[in-house]
Hints:
By secondary structure, the protein is of the alpha/beta class. The chain has 16 helices and 23 strands. It has a 7-stranded mixed beta sheet with strand order 15-16-17-14-13-19-20, sandwiched between helices. The longest helix is centred in the N-terminal third of the chain and has 18 residues, at 40-57. It is globular. The termini are far apart.
Amino acid sequence: MRRLQNFIGGSYRDAEDGPTAPLIDPSTGAVFAEAPVSGAADVDQALRVAAEAFVSWRRTTPSERSLALFRIADAIEARGEELVRAECENTGKPFQLTMDEELPPALDQIRFFAGAARHLQGLAAAEYIAGHTSFVRREPIGVCGAVTPWNYPFMMAIWKFGPALAAGNTMVLKPSDTTPVSSLLLAEIMAEHLPPGVFNVVCGDRDTGRALVVHDIPAMVSVTGSVRAGMEVAAAAAPSLKRVHLELGGKAPVIVFDDADAAVAAAGIAGAGYFNAGQDCTAATRVLAGPRVHDEFLAALVEQAEGSVVGGTEVDGADFGPLNNLTQLERVSGFIDRVPAHATVNTGGMAVGERGYCYAPTVVSGLRQDDELVQSEVFGPVITVQRFSDEAEALQWANGVEYGLASSVWTRDHGRGMRMARDLDFGCVWINTHIPLVAEMPHGGFKRSGYGKDLSTYGFEDYTRIKHVMSNIEA
């Protein structure tokens, strides 16, 4: 049985005390390793090491930090297969799909932040009052605590450390208790190109994360997770007034108007709804279809679902893999068990396979706006379809949830697309596509989907603080 360790100060270290927890391959349901459930002493140790490293790391030049990140990207690319195999062992994702769809953008995102390190933005230095020159310093915040989820372990780690390290911060990251393997391997790879203590990984559970958030050392905590987790983090961080960066849940509306090509829309939406088994806060899982296109679209979506291949790490051609853990399988199953009598499960609605946590791609129609499946994030391969009557109702239903992360509109009418983009209360609006992300554009939501941006220069700026410097040039 493999026994994992924390990665602190440039090397692996045993946790000081506390139990260990089994790690389970979601493809098989079998235990393959155990990880420490680190306590407050381990968190304190990692944070103190990160604080010590910050003293010198913050003094590095942007070009030095940029070069380090470029070298890290190259090193990860050279060990890409090893990293993806670690990711798949821990998540059950199909190996080749992960190699093709997750590794390339992850590398691109590191390289983007490597470039961003050398492009700090600010007002021009000038004499805004006579005899005094003012300019803006954009500085690192300090030690950043980060908590990442189990749906994209290594990519979410990159979304955290990329901007943080580029800006001159140091970091202690706590991965999900079910998926620490790839984050630890990332830390090992990065240690070859960073001073000890700049990036640290502490394994553990919810209590470990809470110890990280309430500790006095972090100047900022960045969390990707559920709305509940985000609310708890915001409350725990409030007494020390540390910065909080939250990317939380989603319930993306997907509005298919009558002029859309039903078959094309169904193919794109199925791909965006079932990718990663629907375990994506931007997943296309809540379709609102026009009155005339509804039936044709629903039939096409059912056909897409029934043609999807579900399988674990080594299943060739799998479109998506298992749910992450038994608790999530039971949660998704519970949503379907509670489908109201006025709705129809058109296809799917059950676990598949003799072992592991795979769930069939599912389509549910006939739901009402206040139904649980419409209002709550399922985080599984379940797509709902509602029939709307007109544009105003589509917009009302789309915005009628507590989330505000992502959305999409499918139409040939440019004006309609632009109107919807203006009025949809979501941090991202895709038109005639759904789910592509690029490093240059911000990702983040409104309402209970959190605040702060990942990716882009906006995400980079979130990890900096601004200082005004004024000098009396007549003195």
